[in-house]
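[recover] target loaded
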């Protein structure tokens, strides 16, 4: 993979393990010549991973909506900053630039981006690996919810399996590098009469 989007929070959270993981992921990208595409911010997890990669002359592209392009939010050190109209356009631009997605801890926006990437794969609009770095069990409850959706008939197991989960950077990237997209089934919902 040449470029990966990283979805993550605009805050650091309370546990320093999240910051440490963002640094570890940034170093992995640099050491493996993987470019970062991200939300363009200089704060929180976004700032940590971009600063880590930029400090080692790695490839970073920021994509930020005009409404967030405030001096205190946008990362001035990122040379390639794409300013777009809104959050929806941001996700489209990001998807065109990358070979895969990784999600680190974050809030509503992070989950929105994760589920949009999964939905694009579910609908066969894209066939890219979507990874979740489950640092410190941060996403355990989210994963339980997905399993409940399968058990209750709202999510197919094959679609649930599209979400690659790793507890470490190495484990997750290994899964992403060997990902095989499921075969395309053109029937999304089969109606039986």
């Amino acid at each position: 993979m040449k470029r990966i989007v990283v979805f993550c929070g605009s805050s650091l959270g309370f546990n320093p393990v999240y910051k440490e993981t963002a640094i570890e992921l940034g170093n992995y990208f640099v050491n493996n010549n993987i470019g970062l595409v991200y939300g363009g911010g200089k704060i929180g997890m976004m700032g940590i991973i971009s600063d880590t990669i930029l400090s080692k002359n790695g490839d970073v592209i920021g994509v930020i909506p005009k409404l967030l392009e405030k001096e205190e939010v946008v990362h001035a050190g990122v040379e390639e900053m794409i300013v777009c109209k809104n959050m929806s356009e941001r996700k489209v631009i990001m998807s065109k630039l990358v070979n895969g997605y990784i999600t680190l801890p974050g809030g509503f926006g992070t989950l929105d981006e994760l589920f949009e990437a999964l939905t694009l794969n579910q609908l066969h609009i894209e066939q890219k690996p979507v990874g979740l770095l489950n640092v410190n069990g941060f996403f355990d409850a989210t994963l339980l919810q997905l399993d409940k959706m399968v058990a209750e008939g709202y999510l197919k197991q094959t679609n649930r399996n599209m979400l690659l989960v790793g507890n470490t950077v190495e484990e997750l990237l290994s899964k992403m590098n060997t990902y095989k997209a499921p075969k395309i089934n053109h029937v999304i919902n089969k109606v039986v009469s």
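[recover] notes: Residues 38 and 144 are 27 Å apart (CA to CA).
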